[in-house]
Design brief:
With about 190 residues, the chain is mainly β. The protein has 2 domains: about 90 residues, Immunoglobulins (Immunoglobulin-like, Sandwich), CATH 2.60.40; about 90 residues, Immunoglobulin-like. The protein is about 5% helix and about 50% strand. The strands form 4 sheets. It has a 4-stranded antiparallel beta sheet with strand order 4-3-6-7, with no helix packed on it. A 4-stranded antiparallel beta sheet has the order 11-10-13-14, with no helix packed on it. The relative contact order is 0.15.
């Protein structure tokens, strides 16, 4: 009677190759990032995968070596992933980059109201529309009352009382939008 080892069916030469990790950054919705991938190995079921750097996360693959997750990134930059198959063999580290597009003003409007009340409004396009910080500057009267945030649609509005403006003068007002990574865009208007 001859007994054949099961492992030799997978690797006839008796050796076991290291697993290979492949992953992509599928989606970035500041600050959340979605990463999907696969561990290639004869022993890929429940392989362990660990990410460090811009993303810190650990998980186990499904029975076929697949995985996908969404997590808040630590910062913009390099992600390093390493996998271990269920026999403990380690893959080579695999690096990827995550980045973000700065917010961008679609428009910025200053509207005069009654008794020196001004409304500053606009729209900011960004990977995440809600929560971008808007800082409006250009006048001493703004001090302490010059910040607002965008709503879920990317819109913002700030109403302030601006006493003492000379009706014969022109004033330059700037608005700066900051996303969660402090990437920014600045626009100007005159009143």
């Amino acid at each position: 009677m001859q007994v054949e080892q099961l492992e030799q069916r997978w690797c006839p030469d008796g050796s076991k190759s290291a697993p290979q990790l492949v992953y992509t950054v599928d989606n970035m919705n500041d600050p959340d990032v979605t990463i999907s991938g696969h561990v290639y190995s004869n022993y890929c079921e429940n392989a362990a995968v660990q990410f460090s750097g811009a993303v810190s996360y650990s998980l186990n693959t499904d029975a076929y070596g697949n995985f996908s997750f969404t997590v808040a990134a630590n910062y913009l930059g390099t992600i390093t992933g390493i996998a271990w198959d269920n026999q403990g063999a380690m893959s080579s580290p695999v690096e990827n980059q995550i980045g973000s597009v700065p917010p961008e003003f679609a428009y910025f409007i200053a509207s005069a109201g009654y008794n020196n009340v001004w409304t500053f409004s606009g729209h900011v396009d960004s990977e995440c529309l809600a929560g971008n910080q808007i800082v409006i500057q250009g006048l001493a009267q703004f001090e302490g009352n010059n910040t607002t945030t965008t709503d879920a649609n990317g819109d913002f509005c700030l109403t302030v009382w601006l006493p003492g403006l000379n009706p014969n003068s022109t004033y330059t007002i700037t608005a700066t939008a900051y996303d969660c990574w402090w990437l920014s865009d600045t626009v100007m208007t005159t009143i």
